[in-house]
Design a protein that fits this description.
The chain has three helices and two strands; from the N terminus they run ααββα. By secondary structure, the chain is α+β, with helices and mostly antiparallel strands. It has a single domain, classed as P-loop containing nucleotide triphosphate hydrolases (Rossmann fold). Strands 1-2 form a two-stranded antiparallel ribbon. It is globular.
Length: 99
């Protein structure tokens, strides 16, 4: 696993970074985004969607559903928000079920 920290200066720059990552994706990548509420995680995912050929207007924070899958692009995109989980172990069933 490799960690990279990136700072962007605007929502547009964040989406552009996501789009570049989406265009570079080959399938099977797992990106973990860490940040406070409002930090731009979903903004980056909208860019990822665009880079994959998925309409970014459909991307919303999955805070209430925990996971949302988007199809219709060249690769599927699963957006997971673990913010609401009470304990780190709560994510284990999600991972076990192939997320």
């Amino acid at each position: 696993m490799r960690a990279t920290e990136v700072a962007t200066a605007s929502p547009e720059e964040t989406e552009a970074l996501g789009a570049a990552l989406g265009r570079a994706a080959r399938g099977g990548e797992l990106l973990g985004l860490v940040g406070e509420l409002g930090a731009g995680k979903t903004c980056l995912v909208r860019g990822l969607a665009a880079g994959l050929g998925i309409d970014p207007a459909h991307v919303h924070s999955p805070s209430f559903t925990i996971a949302t899958e988007y199809r219709g692009g060249r690769l599927p995109l699963t957006h997971v928000d673990l913010y609401r989980l009470a304990r780190p172990d709560d994510e284990e069933p999600l991972l076990r079920d192939g997320l």
